[in-house]
Amino acid sequence: MTRSPVAAAWELIHRFVPRGAILLSTLTFIGYFLGLVRERILSQSFGISNELDAFKAAFLIPELLFSVIVASGLAAPFIPVFTGLKRDAGEPEAHDFGRSVLTLAVLVMGIVSVVLFIVAPLTADLVVPGFDAATRELYIELFRVMCFTQVLFAASMALGEVLIAERRFFFYGAAPLLYNLGIVIGTVLLVDQIGIFAPAVGAVLGAAMHLGIRLVGITRTTFRPWPRLHLRTAAIREFFRLLVPKAAGGPLEPLLFIFFTSLASSMAAGSVTVVDQARNFQSLPVSLIGVTFALAAFPTLAVRYAALDRRGFTTIATRNGITIGLLTVGAAIGLIVLGPFGIEVLLGGGEFGPDDVARLSQTLAVFALSVPFESLGHLLSRAIYATHHTLWQVGATAIGFAVTVATALILAPGLEVLAIPLSFLLGSATRCVLLVAVLARRIRRMPATPLAAAEPA
Known about the structure:
Layout: H1 5-16, H2 21-46, H3 50-58, H4 60-75, H5 78-88, H6 91-119, H7 124-127, H8 133-165, H9 169-194, H10 197-218, H11 234-249, H12 252-265, H13 271-306, H14 310-347, H15 354-368, H16 371-386, H17 391-415, H18 419-444
Helix pairs in contact: 2-9, 2-13, 3-8, 3-13, 4-6, 4-8, 4-11, 4-12, 5-6, 5-8, 5-13, 6-8, 8-10, 9-10, 11-17, 12-17, 13-14, 13-15, 13-16, 14-15, 14-16, 15-18, 16-18, 17-18
């Protein structure tokens, strides 16, 4: 039977694009559009100011601890262990494991959030040493509001891993979109009444919506998120074996941006916001291409590894790596060429003047050069996670971190804020090269013959 042109086109697309990546990219793009709406509203409401600097900085420590305790730990071991249990022990065992991880994540993050609320003033010297007294006090108050979001994110993150394993990509990808929508709603409705606290209240609303859509998605699976703590199992031991090295390296990226914030806080007023907004633009193609391709390919890579299918695993990783590389090089060029126009259209006006547009455009142009390296890093990391390994991946990340920090400190006196994106580029490139070497070593250790037929890509 002759296939239709549409069917042939889709088959060709799926040879180079993992299933679910297009849906995830579409949702991510919508989320970023709402993120730009959010930034435009914030910029026109507050300008590049101390108030907005305090708001941006208030996220860093809560997000750091969330990354260490929940996000980075779950991203590495959950899907390989969950997938292996479904294959070898059956769905009930996999679901019991998932419920235990969900319950543990919420309990631990709840305790951490309470501690953060109490010690908030102690974080100011670390995060914002260059702020004046009034801005530091505002930072502390906003920081305490941000603590409430992290428990909601802990539950949502755990449920999100189940959704990825079950390939329910819509409900996973829609959650960040709703988080941005919450900040927009809070700012628009409350800015005249409570000022800079309006987007903070919106962040809490957005976190609740982030969790809510994933709960809806879970109802479409056989998994039920009841509280459970069965910690003395082989699966939990394997989970923690993989989690510990990854959790140790998990804070490196948030710590890096805390370092960038601290460095920028001693530069010209508004430098913290410039770095944050340039990073937001730069991360769009990274998320649309690098993150979504890596997330969509991750379950299949884990299945291929569980079946010890070296050829299939290598084909999927290589095909996605080439596609990501080509697309992100084009995206980086687009950011450099079209960045000034986009910033003027999306953020210009009100308190955000031509000088602000030029300053942000220069920073974005340097940040854009790191897009291909950071994007490939997401795929390489998840491919390594699929092989039930985390230690060498963390080592590569730590070396990249050290290169970034050292370069930023050396270049900052002469280049000011441009030293930050340039150091990020050098660190990302170093990490990417090291991850390629780690993955090649893991692949060589796989047998050439699969145990059984694995799932299609």
